[in-house]
Design brief:
The complex is a heterodimer of chains A (about 400) and B (about 230). Helix content of chain A is about 55%, strand content about 20%. Chain A is an alpha+beta fold. In chain B, β7 (about 165-170), α6 (about 180-195) and β8 form a beta-alpha-beta unit. The chains are: A alpha+beta (about 400), B alpha/beta (about 230).
């Protein structure tokens, strides 16, 4: 080991290059995975907190005529079914109703999200997104709209909206309601097309005192899409106890485009990781091979003195192993350090021209990084193993040298 | 000196082959070497001295013929068995590039003992002792590039004898040394031969050194031309 370290110190430049060939990919992967992980988590959180929940119980027909969600005239059997299921963090009833929102001579097709404000408040981020006015209360007749919709309809807090609700199962209802709050919605399309209203008010518009379109459920212990097993387990239990005229949909069914994005992202990250590993391995192979070439006479001497081929291999691999280990740990610590610094500074704000795009796809306009310990360990360990495997080829060559020929070798 | 030879070669031949040419290096060498001998192999360049030493040391394989080391034929040994034989029974001193540059003089001297699995404390003690006997203990913690060529060759001799092998093979050990250093090195080897009973066989083309040996085997064109036993110098 001492000799291996001295060899590495003796050839500082090459050792540094080998070290960097391991360190850089690990550093880049830790940061890349940290970025992906944090923003996946953000996107998942946005979708499941503000819109879909982890699961929804709906009427088995799912869709009514047109694009409207089928109504459950009485959601109480679904709520009762939830009582006996472990692992549920929270649930609430929601009534989504297509409507036309008008103010003056402007109008726009919207989706009214009828909610129980006091129930969604603990988990929803909507209150924190209010940029003008206040959030809803169950006993107030007002609505909250996105600032994009407020701009389109040219309304502000205190102005009235005329909502023309139209559902194929209940007919048409009309209400005039004031705007009590304006939110900066995390997804631009939501800001343009969602109106949040108290459930009771929405039921008036739907002309049904008990109607709902979904019971929205959040599952305990879910921190990101990687916890889908927990969601699936609860969904399976619910399906087993619900009456036949109800169906359980999970977030992947409800926002398949997000699921597709996440499904593409993981293989893409793995491909990038494989490219990093491959490049790192090539550099390690090259530098270790050069080292063996330069030390051919020394290796010939060692073999002449009676060293076994295994010993020669071990000596080359131990040098590669030291560099791989130090590089992997250095890369991991560097990556984790950068994540820590970025988060200590509050994340990376996107330039204004990219913020709109980020919002359109549901990504926070401040990018965050997240350290996922298993991912860091996996990236570091995998790169270290790849580096040692890359060194195997030149180590094998060294061990197969003929002592006399090796000692005659001229660089 | 016992009657059975330490090393015996029987019609030993070696030819180097390329695609177009076969170059004979040894052409039927029959040689017996006995314990405690201090023998020089003399001859001009290209006479086959180094080839003979390489074959005797198990560093290369003959084209035909046989080598018996302590009665044991080398021809059937695998690469790993030959490596083990070199480690346990043969000490080497080469013409140049004798020492491992990243090891200190002490570590170089103890290297073969380390290969043999001797415990650290013991190998350090034995290496220090032999360095002391050869008068180079003061260099124990130096790296090879900090000492002279003559001192490096002394360290190589120390390493060759520290494990008390059956024979020390030295291939032109004085080739890169000046006259004084060459004579000092040969005298040192001779002292080890007389004091410790170490068997030496070394190749040289320096006639001045031959006065100090007890036997001179002269090779010409791969054949033994003379085999002369002398009185101890």
């Amino acid at each position: 080991m001492k000799a291996a370290i001295r060899h590495l110190v003796r050839n500082r430049r090459r050792s540094l290059l080998t070290l960097l060939a391991v360190l850089c990919p690990v550093f880049a992967l830790v940061v890349m995975f940290g970025f992906a992980s944090a923003n996946l988590s953000d996107m998942f959180d946005t979708v499941t907190r503000v819109d879909t929940g982890h699961l929804q119980i709906r009427h088995v027909d799912t869709r009514a005529a047109g694009s409207a969600t089928a109504l459950m005239q009485d959601p109480s059997p679904a709520i009762e079914a939830l009582a006996g299921i472990d692992g549920i963090e929270w649930h609430t009833v929601r009534l989504d109703l297509p409507a036309l929102a008008s103010a003056g001579d402007r109008s726009r097709t919207v989706l009214i999200q009828g909610v129980v404000p006091e129930e969604i408040d603990p988990i929803s981020s909507t209150r924190s997104l209010i940029v003008a006015g206040t959030y809803l209360t169950s006993d107030s007749p007002g609505v909250v709209i996105g600032k994009e919709l407020a701009d389109l309809l040219r309304v502000g807090v205190g102005d009235d909206l005329v909502l023309l609700g139209a559902h194929p199962e209940t007919g048409v209802g009309v209400l005039r309601v004031p705007v009590v709050g304006i939110v900066d919605a995390p997804i631009a399309e939501m800001g343009r097309s969602v109106v949040q209203a108290p459930l009771a008010l929405t039921r008036q518009l739907a002309r049904s005192a008990t109607a709902a379109t979904a019971v929205v459920v959040r599952v305990a212990g879910v921190t990101g899409p990687w916890d889908s097993d927990r969601i699936d387990a609860v969904a399976a239990k619910l399906r087993a106890v619900l009456p036949a005229d109800y169906v359980v949909l999970d977030w992947r069914d409800l926002v398949p485009q997000v699921d597709v994005f996440l499904r593409i992202l993981n293989p893409a990250l793995l491909i990038v990781a494989a490219i990093f590993f491959g490049l790192g391995a090539l550099v390690v192979l090259n530098t270790v091979y050069l080292s063996v070439m330069e030390r051919t006479r020394e290796l010939g001497l060692i073999l002449s003195l009676g060293a076994s081929r295994g010993r020669v291999m071990r000596s080359i691999l131990s040098e590669a192993g030291i560099l791989a280990g130090v590089g992997a740990v250095g890369g991991a610590l560097g990556g984790v350090g950068l994540v820590w610094i970025v988060e200590a500074l509050g994340g990376i704000p996107l330039p204004a021209e990219y913020s709109a795009f980020a919002k359109a796809v549901g990504i926070n306009s401040v990018l965050h990084l997240r350290v996922d310990a298993p991912q860091v360990l996996l990236a570091a360990a995998a790169m270290a193993v790849v580096a040692v495997l890359a060194a195997w080829v030149p180590a094998l060559r060294a061990s197969n040298l003929e002592p006399v020929e090796a000692m005659r070798y001229v660089e | 000196m016992s009657n059975s030879p330490l090393i015996r070669t029987i019609d030993l031949r070696k030819a180097y082959e390329t695609e177009a040419v076969t170059t004979p290096a040894l052409c039927g060498v029959d040689l017996d070497l006995h314990e405690k001998e201090f023998t020089a192999i003399a001859g001009p360049s290209g006479s086959g001295k180094s080839t003979l030493l390489h074959l005797l040391g198990g560093l290369d394989r003959p084209t035909s013929g046989e080598i018996l080391l302590e009665g044991r034929p080398l021809s059937g040994l695998s690469k790993d068995q030959l490596a083990r034989l070199r480690m346990t029974s043969i000490g080497f001193v080469f013409q140049a590039y004798n020492l491992i540059p990243v090891l200190t003089v002490l570590e170089n001297t103890a290297f073969v003992l380390e290969l043999q699995g001797v415990a650290r404390a013991e190998r350090i003690e034995r290496a220090r002792r032999i360095l002391g006997e050869l008068g180079i203990e003061k260099y124990a913690d130096q790296f090879p590039n900090r000492i002279s060529g003559g001192e490096q060759q002394r360290v190589a001799v120390a390493r060759a004898v520290v494990s008390e092998p059956s024979i020390v093979l030295a291939d032109e050990p004085t080739a890169n040394l000046d006259s004084a250093a060459s004579l000092e090195l040969i005298d040192l080897m001779r002292r080890l031969n007389e004091g410790k009973g170490a068997t030496f066989l070394f190749a040289t083309h320096d006639a001045r050194l031959l006065d100090r040996v007890s036997r001179v085997v002269t090779l010409v064109d791969g054949r033994i031309s003379t085999d002369e036993v002398r009185d101890s110098a």
